[in-house]
Amino acid sequence: MKNIVILISGGGSNMAAIVNAAHREQWATRYQARVAAVISNQAAAGGLAVAQSHGIATDTVDHKAYASREAFDAALRDRIDHYAPSLVVLAGFMRILTPAFVQHYAGRLLNIHPSLLPAFPGLHTHQRAIDAGCQFAGATVHQVTAELDHGPILAQAVVPVLAGDTADTLAARVLTQEHLIYPRAIAALLSEKL
Ligand code: NHR
Ligand code: GAR
Fold first, then answer.
1. Closest ligand 2 atom, CA of 91?
2. How many domains, in total, are found in the chain?
3. Is the pTM of the predicted complex or chain greater than 0.90?
């Protein structure tokens, strides 16, 4: 069985979309793959309870308990490797990862970023898209490399920016598309690896 470990920081709706797709599409029989664990850097992340309700193992590695990014990443890596993952999936994970961490998972580390990369890497993507006068916004699934939000693109979805949009209304429109493309991109990757 191939193990998928999902890293979250918050509500975990992308994580839930992946878990639901894995269940609905029977990834276990189709791809010999399952979501083995959900790990958060925030003990209060709402997604942890959602994962537990699906019988998925959960863990917290609190970045505030570590003196440096390197120390946090080493602890996070230990916790992740406990599950011997074939794939590590960032889903609303909010800590920048060190080059050593990224290197350790090279080729098996994915992220979903809420913009049409290469536009708007980093934070506050929706406000930046509105401020720039963009007529379209969206989300990008990409492989994670040491350079933030710059890895090879696996999937994208586009939504319109509508008159009167705020960062929140645009984020909600983008998020509905994230829930479609992230499970699909992971399934495509799993079937490719068979
Ligand atoms: N790490 C690497 N090396 N490469 C990427 O492409 C990464 C990454 C870690 C996370 C997700 C990313 C996003 O999709 C991601 C991609 C957090 C920040 C950030 O500035 C930026 C981008 C992303 C995630 N984080 C602050 C930090 O100091 C903390 C912000 C907070 O806690 O709210 O780490 O957008
Ligand atoms: C998603 O929109 C995701 O793309 C974004 O945070 C949201 C998490 O929602 N990720 C980032 O901004 C990473 N810096 P979720 O917790 O409900 O999946």
1. 18
2. 1
3. yes
